[in-house]
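Our consortium's second objective concerns turning raw sequence data into structural hypotheses that experimental partners can test. To show how far this objective has progressed, the report includes one record in full. It was chosen at random from the queue rather than selected for favorable results. The single chain below, 223 residues long, was entered without modification.
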Amino acid sequence: MLSEAVQDYLKSIYKLSHASQAGEMVTTSLIAERMQVSAASATNMIKKLAELRLLDHTPYQGVELTPTGVKMALEIVRHHRLLELYLRQSLGYDWDQVDAEADRLEHAISEDFEDRIDRALGFPTVGAHGEPIPSKEGDIAVHNYRRLADMAEGERCWIRQVSDRDPALLRYLDEHGLILGTEVEIRERAPFRGPLRIAIGVDREHHLGLEAAEQIYVEIAAA
């Protein structure tokens, strides 16, 4: 059995590795920032994970999970995303609340409880924020979504995934109807990293800052 701290690090390193550029390793400073600990604390845990053969560490470059580390991280991610969806769909939690609640529960549930949640939800493959839910066998879908911030004027798209890092952002998006499955059209891009003027659905417009648009992932709508 892995400690809760080890599980939290594995999950965070996995998520950081998928947020980084292709081929880019996850640095100690990034891990420390994500875990909200000192660089020394992060370094000590990295050494422990390397001794457990859950990651490979290249000094002054970063870390990379081993196949075993990835497998264990995906199991934790599966627990987390199933719990988030269960809290959202079955218990009525808002999508800005489910991440913190799932963090508290993910270490405690048994495999049987996980299976029961999975079955009760109809064996979902997409989580509360649009992220893929790993299968019990450790497989996970890869979606080539684009950031809303990178869309060109006149392009239409569907919101498929949003970052779960900032509850305030999730509340803001919810207030303006920018939820999963919403159709958006880029009406205008202001220069110098100014806001986007977007059409939401068929009857609303909104000016959305790039900081928020960079946390929204979309699928281009068919012409």
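The partners drew two points from this record. The first strand starts at residue 55 and ends at 58. DSSP finds eight helices and eight strands in the chain. Both points have been shared with the crystallography group to help prioritize constructs.
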